[in-house]
Write a structure and sequence with these properties.
It is rod-shaped and about 110 Å long. Among the domains are: 69 residues, SH3 type barrels; 101 residues, Alpha-Beta Plaits (2-Layer Sandwich), CATH 3.30.70. Helix content is 50%, strand content 20%. With 301 residues, the chain is of the alpha+beta class. The strands form two sheets. A five-stranded antiparallel β-sheet has the order 4-3-2-1-5. The protein has a four-stranded antiparallel β-sheet with strand order 7-8-6-9, covered by helices on one side. The protein is built from eight helices and nine strands. α2 runs antiparallel to α3. The C terminus is likely disordered.
Length: 301
């Protein structure tokens, strides 16, 4: 029993001396004497506390920035970018604190560190370029989270809704469902078409009709279709005009402006209305051709 009592007494004395040494280390650093084991234990404690503190800080930051993990969100790319940059800076600071506790002298490793830095810089130049491009994308604000964009470069053309701009990648969601991940430096070097930057989009429909058709009647029918559709803007007013004269028919253009959130609904539904209205009014569409989007309006895909 006496041996057991002495054992626990020695354990208690060790912890007392340990905490006293820790206190001396931080208050009177030059006088504190810490063994390697004690320094390692302090480092482990600092890392654990730092990890817990980081979780709390990130929770607070997300609350302040109103970053939600699910559901529709206003532009959050810059906020995600700031959070990730904060995490990197935070762990660098913790690494310096741990190094100070361990008492490692980095001056002797300065030459090696410089060489390693140069080597890493060369090896990671693409990653560094991606990071710098991410900052540029967020700074210029050519597009924000939720915008529907098209990115065209030497690798091809992709399009989708912007989901996130992270430190290294821009993520798009294609209308068909797949997620598209593009390195930021490829995005900055690409031609970008932002379909939702402006509140309105123009829709032009080219309709072939027979040469003996009544143009005034066609204009009346098409204007009625566009005016009665509440999704089509009153200003600028819809217009109808003869666009081209083909070998077997002439082409009538029906043009209107639509808020971008209704664009595809009108785009996909107006043709049926035109066909049914033409049938009701005896307007013939030549069999050799069909209704199509005006060829010089390819940007309205």
């Amino acid at each position: 029993m006496k041996i057991l009592d002495n054992f626990w007494q020695n354990i208690g004395n060790w912890f007392l001396n340990f905490f006293k040494s820790v206190g001396d280390f931080f208050v009177y650093k030059e006088e504190g004497q810490l063994s390697n084991l004690e320094r390692i234990l302090i480092c482990i404690g600092v890392i654990v506390l730092a990890w817990v503190l980081l979780k709390v800080l990130l929770l607070v930051i997300r609350k302040l920035f109103k970053i939600k993990k699910k559901g529709p969100q206003i532009d959050i790319s810059a906020k995600f970018f700031a959070v990730e940059a904060f995490k990197i800076a935070y762990w660098i600071t913790i690494a310096l604190i741990v190094n100070n506790i361990l008492g490692i002298n980095l001056s002797s490793l300065a030459g090696i560190a410089s060489a390693v830095t140069v080597a890493l810089g060369l090896a990671l130049q693409d990653i560094i370029g991606m990071f710098a491009s991410g900052i540029l994308l967020l700074r210029t604000k050519n597009f924000v989270t939720g915008d529907f964009i098209s990115v065209s470069n030497s690798y091809g053309t992709v399009e989708g809704s912007v989901r996130k701009v992270s430190l290294l990648y821009t993520k798009l969601t294609n209308p068909n469902g797949p997620e598209i991940i593009i390195p930021n430096n490829n995005v900055t070097k690409s031609n970008i078409t932002n379909y939702t930057k402006n509140p309105n989009r123009r829709l032009s429909i080219s309709i072939p009709v027979a040469y003996d058709s009544d143009i005034d009647k066609i204009r009346e029918v098409l204007n009625k279709i566009m005016i009665e559709d509440e999704r089509i803007n009153e200003t600028p007013a819809p217009v109808v005009f003869v666009d081209n004269l083909g070998e077997y028919c002439m082409f009538i253009i029906a043009r209107c402006h639509i808020s971008y959130q209704y664009y595809w609904d009108v785009h996909n539904g107006i043709r049926e209305k035109i066909i049914l209205a033409f049938r009701d009014n005896g307007i013939k569409i030549p069999v050799r051709t069909s209704i199509s989007i005006d060829s010089d309006r390819a940007e309205e895909r």
